[in-house]
Amino acid sequence: MNCSRFHRWVTFLAVFILVSPCAVLSALVPLSNCYTVASDTRFYDLTSLYGKEFNYEQGTTTYALHFCKDFQERSQTGYVSFGTYQPGPALSSTPATANFVQEYRHGDLRGCEDYGTQFNGRETKVAVTCGSCPGKEPCKDPAGCICSVEVEIASKSCVASVVLAIACPEAGPKVVEGFSVGFSPRGREVVNNGFTQWGYENTEHSDYSFETSQSKIFLYFSAPTYVAKNIGKPTYSAYPSKGLAVKLSGTAAVGTAPTIMTPSVLEVDWFCESQNNYVLTISVPVLGYDPVEFSLLKLCARKQAKEQTGSSGWATFGILSCILAVITTVGCCAGILYRTRVERKHGLEALPGVGLLAGCLDMFSTDGGDGYRRADDTTTIIGEHRPLRDGASSSTRAGPRPLDGKYGAV
């Protein structure tokens, strides 16, 4: 392989990496549990400082903070644990001079068995300031230093307050705290507290993929009330762009605001039009925040035929029923006109099908098989079926009385 061909291959590989969706991490995913969200909802990834030890000497006691791990009080008699790091948003309020707060809980219980409402033992609140200590010289360590440590006597020395100054990394995007996406009304498998979960941030995890037969999935959005009104209609993009038919529907697709108690539903209908693996990236816009994005991997092993929905079947049934009703009405009206004007029939005999109905009744009749007779044969029927009295013969039986047209004649 000559140099020119080698350079062409290198250029092609570089372009492929740049345009590949796997190379761009658009979703907000923490690289570790060592992260925080500042008071302005900005995301700070502190993974580079994970485990960094900061020491502070106060008399004969040395305090050691292992960043994002634990906080200890060391002396000649040993050491006392003041808690381990608790990831996620802090429950304590952030001081005016700090950017965010870290909490360390579940420390040693000795002497603090009955402290607090949850009996978690010793705990520490670390107020982190980006830059240098307030009113002091810059830290000698470029990574940062402990400004002060105070063990609260009023709390039986069970709570420590630490002020820490560090070189904060560049602030990340704004986090939509409280916003969650899952496969059930209370699920948080896809997005939890504004962060895209592992497995749905890119296309490298085939264990979190969907098979060809899964042509429909439901996603449930939930958010606090103060955030829900800012959530817009989700959009999507597929890679490759052709070969996967996608349709978004449901309450979330039309922009219905979700809440914690009544989540909105996003129905994703996707069908494989060709055999390939597809990445569906869904972006949820939130006013005042960066969009929340997550990816779904679809493995199309074959071409998939679109299923006919139940609504289309009912529509077909309704159309056929209307056509049948119109044809029946027109045929009945035409039959009545023909029998009244051509055959000179009136009354019930003018209705189409009455003769057929009379024939059926005559065939299934159980009265001896005499059948249906016309109305003008009434006297004959009465005469023929008059029962014989005792001592009277059939030869002397009186015949039917002729109709004389007078009232009272039988």
Task: Provide a descriptive summary of the structure in words.
The chain is an alpha+beta fold and 410 residues long. Among the domains are: 47-166, Cation-dependent Mannose-6-phosphate Receptor, Chain A, CATH 2.70.130.10; 180-300, Sandwich (Immunoglobulin-like); 331-358, no CATH class. It contains 5 helices and 20 strands. It has helices at residues 3-19, 225-228, 310-341, 354-363, 378-384, and strands at residues 35-37, 43-45, 53-58, 61-66, 70-75, 78-85, 100-105, 123-130, 144-151, 159-166, 180-182, 191-192, 195-196, 209-210, 216-222, 235-239, 244-249, 264-272, 276-284, 292-300. An 8-stranded mixed β-sheet has the order 3-4-5-6-7-8-10-9, with no helix packed on it. The chain is elongated, with a radius of gyration of 44 Å. The N and C termini lie far apart (124 Å). 22% of the residues are buried. Residues 1-25, 377-399 and 403-410 have low confidence and may be disordered. The chain crosses the membrane at residues 314-338.
Spell out the blueprint of helices and strands.
Elements (H helix, E strand, L loop, with lengths): L2 H17 L15 E3 L5 E3 L7 E6 L2 E6 L3 E6 L2 E8 L14 E6 L17 E8 L13 E8 L7 E8 L13 E3 L8 E2 L2 E2 L12 E2 L5 E7 L2 H4 L6 E5 L4 E6 L14 E9 L3 E9 L7 E9 L9 H32 L12 H10 L14 H7 L26
Parallel strand pairs: 8-10, 14-20
Antiparallel strand pairs: 1-2, 3-4, 4-5, 5-6, 6-7, 7-8, 9-10, 11-15, 12-13, 15-18, 16-19, 17-18, 19-20
